[in-house]
Specification:
Blueprint (H helix, E strand, L loop, with lengths): L1 H38 L17 E7 L6 H9 L8 E7 L5 H14 L3 E5 L7 H10 L6 E4 L10 H11 L3 E10 L6 H23 L11 E4 H6 L10 H11 L3 E12 L5 H28 L5 H11 L3 H19 L7 H10 L1 H13 L1 H6 L4 H17 L1 H12 L34 H22 L5 H20 L6
Parallel strand pairs: 1-2, 1-4, 2-3, 5-7
Antiparallel strand pairs: 4-6, 5-6
Helix pairs in contact: 1-6, 1-11, 1-12, 1-13, 2-3, 6-13, 6-15, 8-9, 9-10, 9-16, 11-16, 11-17, 15-18, 17-18
Length: about 500
């Protein structure tokens, strides 16, 4: 029995180790890209053609019950620098609350000032966000389609920075920009989210792009060639991450994607735990659904190389990491108890500890993504280690919630698209406590998170009782992570800030 547990434990650790090596590969590609930038300074910027030759562009804004941010969004999009007669704005509004009136008033204001802006209300909310985007696509003749979610504030120069790539590169089907964060300094929770997202947008997207591998549209802050969407089969709502799904279908068709790390699009991070859980559920389950749908196509494709297939495998299976974390965590306590009975398998225990080097590899990956680490060097190391360990702990604390979402995706259990509530939080003094859209019901999984916090506290107790401290840090991080996630989930239900 003990040997079987050790083997299963090792298999999950092996996946984590392989995943970390792929992230290290992306880090090397990213550093190579940075060296290339330094070697060719001042490379010419692609410019827009004269105004009379500019194409019609449509900006789609899919919204659903966004009373705190919809006016801010419309104002920001109206401020984008582009001729009014060649810019079409579609507010794809599926709302069921008073935000409809707020949006209608703002749309009317800009229409009266010469903007081509439409307030589009579907008769039936079918297909959620994917359905709204497809519905709007049928009602525009524009050749290029930009998309912004409700929590974004597009930069006025967005089209000036992105559109030239589509105009000059007929093989390019989509241009994605980097997310920036309006409220990163709001709380520990928003700081940790920014820590993780920055690694994705700084290293992962750049690394995949530089390596010639598939990247993904991030659902917002990007611009598509309309023909690319149509040629790839259009928007589909059969997964919860319609953006990742269409990205893979398009690139399997041979379309190229561009990522512009130097172009930032500010957005609002979830400011309370239950909103973050809604977002994480959709992202992790949707990624699992996309893996089931698209991995067979990736492996059978003849137009992509082996290296790209390997990176696509770990890209589409990245949410499986939560299943691995949860599984190794649960197995670690009984293995600690059984370790004295498994003296003959000491080599296997040592081999398992080697795979823990994956956390050091991930440390390098996240270190590279932090601008303060680049500027301050080793002076930034103490602060980075603290942030990295906190980030890992909270990620571990979300593993029960996310692992269940992933398994639902793999086994085909369909659920509704649950949007992430936005509260218009931009600075420390702002509060979500008295606002609508907050979850007011306890998720049963929260009790599971509390039980797991106690479970790993028992693992800490075992370490001292057995005088075996190899798992002490691991169990300490797990205990803190599950307790923090559960505590925040309960505390924030009460409306405290």
């Amino acid at each position: 029995m003990g040997l079987a547990l050790l083997i299963v434990y090792g298999v999950f650790l092996l996946f984590i180790f392989a995943y970390s090596l792929v992230q290290l590969s992306l880090t090397f590609h990213y550093l190579k890209a940075k060296r290339r930038e330094k070697a060719v300074p001042g490379s010419p910027e692609k410019l827009l053609p004269p105004e009379e030759n500019l194409p019609l562009v449509c900006i789609q804004l899919p919204v659903y019950n966004e009373r705190y941010v919809v006016e801010r969004l419309i104002d920001a999009v109206a401020a984008i620098e582009y001729p009014k007669d060649k810019l079409e704005i579609q507010l794809l509004d599926d709302s069921t609350d008073d935000s409809v009136e707020l949006a209608a008033a703002r749309v009317a204001h800009f229409r009266n000032n010469g903007y081509r802006i439409k307030h589009i209300r579907r008769p039936v909310r079918k297909g959620f966000k994917a359905g709204a985007l497809a519905y709007g696509l049928e009602q525009t003749t524009a050749e290029f389609i930009a998309i912004f979610d409700a929590d974004f504030i597009p930069d006025p120069g967005f089209l000036r920075s992105t559109l030239p790539f589509l105009l000059n590169e007929p093989e390019t089907g989509m241009v994605q920009t980097r997310w920036k964060h309006l409220n990163e300094e709001y709380s520990l929770l928003t700081k940790l989210q920014a820590f993780g997202l920055d690694a994705h947008f700084v290293v992962e997207q750049c690394g995949r792009s530089m390596g010639g591998h598939f990247i993904n549209f991030n659902g917002t802050a990007g611009i598509w060639r309309k023909q690319c969407i149509i040629d790839s089969g259009g928007w589909s709502s059969d997964t919860l991450t319609e953006d990742l799904d269409l990205s893979y279908r398009a690139q399997l068709k041979g379309w190229k994607f561009r990522y512009l790390p130097g172009v930032g699009s500010p957005s609002e991070l979830p400011s309370e735990m239950n909103s973050l859980k809604s977002q994480q559920y959709r992202w992790t389950k949707g990624a699992a659904e996309c893996a089931v749908k698209n991995l067979p196509k990736v492996f059978s494709a003849r137009n992509i190389g082996f290296g790209t297939k390997v990176h696509a495998l770990f890209h589409l299976l990245n949410s499986f990491i939560f299943v691995c974390i949860l599984s190794t965590s649960l197995l670690s306590v009984p293995l600690l108890q059984l370790k004295p009975e498994l003296d003959n398998y000491e080599t296997l225990f040592r081999l398992a500890s080697v795979f823990l080097l994956s956390f050091l590899v991930l440390g390098v990956f996240y270190w590279i993504s932090r601008p303060e680490c680049e500027h301050r060097g080793f002076m930034a190391l103490p602060g980075f280690i603290g942030s990295f360990l906190l980030f890992l702990s909270v990620s571990m604390g979300l593993s029960l919630h996310n692992a269940i979402a992933v398994l639902e995706g793999y086994f085909g259990r369909k659920t509704s698209f649950v949007r992430t509530p936005k509260f218009g939080i931009a600075k420390k003094g702002d509060s979500w406590a008295d606002k609508q859209y907050r979850s007011l019901r306890m998720n049963p999984l929260t009790f599971g998170e509390l039980l797991l916090a106690g479970y790993f506290a028992y693992g800490i107790y075992l370490a001292f009782r057995m005088e075996d401290y190899g798992m002490l840090l691991f169990h300490g991080m797990l205990g803190f992570g599950f307790f923090y996630v559960a505590f925040q989930s309960i505390f924030q239900l009460r409306g405290a800030n």
